[in-house]
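ZP: hey, is the BV8 complex queued? I don't see it on the tracker
AM: it wasn't, my bad. submitting now with these inputs:
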Amino acid sequence: MSERKLKSRKKLVILSGAGISAESGLGTFRDSDGLWEKYDINDVATIDAWYKNKKLVLDFYNARRIQNIAAQPNLGHLALVDLEDYFDVYIITQNIDDLHERAGSSNVTHLHGEIMKGKSEHDEGLIFDLKHPEIQLGDKAADGHQMRPHVVWFGEAVPMMNKAEEIMVDADIVLVVGTSLNVYPAANLIYSCPTDAVKYIVDPNDIPVNSEFTHLKGTATSILPKLKTILRFQE
Ligand code: BV8
């Protein structure tokens, strides 16, 4: 068996945010034309908002779910799939869209939930694939309680955080792409990886990270397809 085959493949951990789906037409959150410019987080993405106006919250996520269904994975998502030929790739995403999965990525952890899934408003553990693109008031989960989006709202705990930290803790290579690192505790994940891990951040804007990160300035579709060549030297 060749020397390369004998070496175990390096672990590549990717932390993605809304920016990787921007070129698929899904709005980011904090760019100038971002979602939170049009909606107040407190009206649509907190547990208080849910109890204040369930219909407004359902309508907000129904519109995003329909947008998600119409969107296609872009060259950035597809480039991450190709990297699975060379590395053990783990994707930790803050995104609730399913574009990583639809591109073909096989190991995706959603920190903030999944828009194509619903759950009972009474039992956080009762999670299911949605059969219809919209959740309406009166739609019930199997426990007879109102269905809600399977999404982590601001002020809600992030159940997948421990799993994400376990993934990050022995990364050989870390790639941060399309996130402003403004949301916690997700943003703290960059401190969970080994100091000697090779670290890259892909973003058209400057993001305040420490000097251990190499900033590859550009969009996901312009940078990620080239990354394969850059990372091959890390194999
Ligand atoms: C919790 C699901 C405790 C919903 C989301 C004050 C200080 C610090 C923290 C807090 C604070 N006040 C409150 C908090 C905590 C709060 C928080 O972090 N708030 C922020 C706003 C300060 N966090 C929470 O509430 C979390 N829970 O702390 O719980 C607890 C513990 C126990 C028990 C009970 C409670 C829960 C946070 C989860 C919120 N839900 N999403 C939804 O999607 O509708 S977060 C939401 O923001 C999305 O998940 C999104 O992914 C995430 C982060 O945003 P980004 O992905 O980074 O997107 P953004 O637009 O910001 O950046 C896009 C980037 O892409 C930019 O850098 C841009 O330059 C780049 N880009 C643009 N185009 C491209 C590109 N890159 C590449 N290519 C391109 N083409």
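AM: back. The first helix runs from residue 3 to 6.
ZP: great, adding it to the tracker
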